[in-house]
Amino acid sequence: MDIKKILSIALIGGLTQHAFAQYTEDAFNFSRTETSTTARFSALGGQQTSMGGDLSSIYGNPAGLGMFSRSEFGFSIGLNSYKNNHTFLGNTGTDNVFNPTINNIGIVLHSPVSKYSGDTKKGLVAVSYGIGYQKNNYFKNELNLAGRTDNNGLSDFFADQANLDGAIDPTKLGSETIFGAYHGFLIDRSGNSYVPNTYTDSDQSINVMRKGGQSNIDLSFGLNFSNQVYIGAGLGIASVNYKSRETLLDNGDFLYDIDNPITPAPPAGQPQYPEFNPRRSYNANFYRNYDTEGAGVNFKLGAIIKPVDEFRIGFSFESPTYYDLTDNYYESLSYVSPYNERIYREENFPMTYNLRTPLKLNGGISYIIGNKGFLSADINYSDYSTAKFSSNLKGTDRNVNDGIQQSYKDVVNFGVGGEFKVSNEFAVRAGYRYLADPYNTKISNNDNAINRYSGGFGYKVGTYSIDAAVMVYDSKDGYNNYTLSTGDQPYADISKTTTRFSITFGARF
To answer: What are the DSSP E strand ranges found in 357-463?
Structure first.
């Protein structure tokens, strides 16, 4: 099947409706990145806009590079733990997922200018250059769902898709898998519409496996003017690698009435339905595979002002990331028909498109408490409804962008954190961050805002340092393998507890 043919069948036809929803969701997922930080700033809650002097400045506010007084190298490793508690068709379950990561690795090269001029109080004092790799989004997850639906099983989905397709002649249905559902009698014709050809109850078992992530290679520099004003800029080369595997097993019975069959009588020579067993079972396997990858570019500008030694005020701007993405969607349907015919149909939909993520604005303020520590607060703004999808299919672009604007909204996130030096070598840290609900259309009846708590410590000996952090938060999510026009498809409510551990090793030179 040609993707252009399928995506132009109707405004919302069968697989078009599913493609629109998938691209809308991907636009949001690829936009909701968080700048990677060292374990030191992770323990503070991620606040780094106004502090500076940390490797996190490579990835966040590049003006903070101007606060370096020496060159430095460091890398951060981590472990992400996800606990998914879910309810599906009346059944509850839990899935645990662990994901070891390299969070970031970077180097800052400090170049003092004052050694040539001899003046450290006026004009350009120093320039610092940074290059680093950061992982700023993680997709790894797994769900295992099972339950019994009294209505709206897989045959209802395919009947719904066939009716949305609008082809009265089944041989002209715009999808191989929909035609496979008709050919094997999961669905049938009734007048001018398609209807399920199964009993309403069925057992469903779903496995979802996702992996991949997003990352940036950042090239940044920061300037130090008179040890009071710091200005920086950075260029980011972004990449996306997302893979998802979804398998639905739907086990039920074909609808067959001995006195008034919906399906035609078996052809001559084929096994007849035994009169003592009017219900004949099926076990349908509906498989979906999503692969998306690509690259993009973004840039950052930032400034930090130190009006007095105790206060720092920071601002940064992160441009949209302009992605060039390739998506390959594959699906297959397999089962045995009532006449013992092996049904197998598959589809492959390649798609190339561009995605522009929203811009991000950040502000922050820090208060330095002598040589005992500091307090820092950040505020961040982004409007997810401004993400832009574009391809060579204008109808698809219009529907996906309408879906983005209707589904998502602008958010204001904020956080606060602090560090206290127990001694010259040892410091403890704690932080809090609030991530506002980005959904216009709710995933569930719950508020999808996130309250994230963090803490950690750091130890320095000579020119070496080690920092550790942990972040813990709960979030709400949801999942449905397919959608129905009526909106009452089987749905899983998911409560996810995320725990992230990170350790940063650093060396100054």
So the answer is: 360-369, 373-383, 388-390, 410-421, 426-435, 450-461
Domain count, the chain: 1
CA dihedral 386, 416, 466, 137 (to 10 degrees): -20
**C-beta of residue 415 within 8 angstroms of C-beta of residue 433:** yes
Who has greater pLDDT, 100 or 21? 100
Residues 175-185: pLDDT tens digits? 999 999 999 99
* CATH number of the domain where residue 7 is located: 2.40.160.60
Does 15 have pLDDT greater than 70?
A: no
Burial 96-109 (b: 16+ CB within 10 A, else e): ebebebebbbbbbb
* Pair of tokens at residue 486: 């009526």
* Per-residue pLDDT tens digits for 226-263: 999 999 999 999 999 999 999 999 999 998 654 445 44
Q: Phi/psi of residue 14, each to 5°?
A: 25, -110
Three-state DSSP state, 380: strand
Which pLDDT tens digit goes with each residue over 88-113? 999 999 999 999 999 999 999 999 98
Q: Give the tokens for residue 141.
A: 């997850």
The answer to whether 77 and 83 are in contact (CB under 8 A) is no
The answer to whether 75 and 505 have CB atoms below 8 angstroms apart is yes
Q: Domain of 376?
A: 3-508
Q: Say whether pLDDT at 352 is over 50.
A: yes
**What burial class does residue 165 get, using C-beta atoms within 10 Å of its C-beta: 0-12 exposed, 13-18 middle, 19+ buried?**
buried
DSSP state of 228: T
- Asked if pLDDT for residue 77 goes beyond 50, the answer is yes
CA 430 from centroid of its chain's CA atoms: 26
* Token pair recorded at residue 259: 């006195």
Residues forming a β-bridge with 382: 360, 411
pLDDT of the residue at 316: 98
Q: How far apart are CA 222 and CA 230, in angstroms?
A: 7
| Cα separation, 338 vs 344, whole angstroms | 14
d(CA 367, CA 502): 25
* Rounded distance between C-alpha atoms, residue 32 and residue 484, angstroms: 27
Residue 502 near residue 468, CB atoms below 8 Å: yes
Cα separation values, 312 from 42, 49, 66, Å? 19, 10, 13
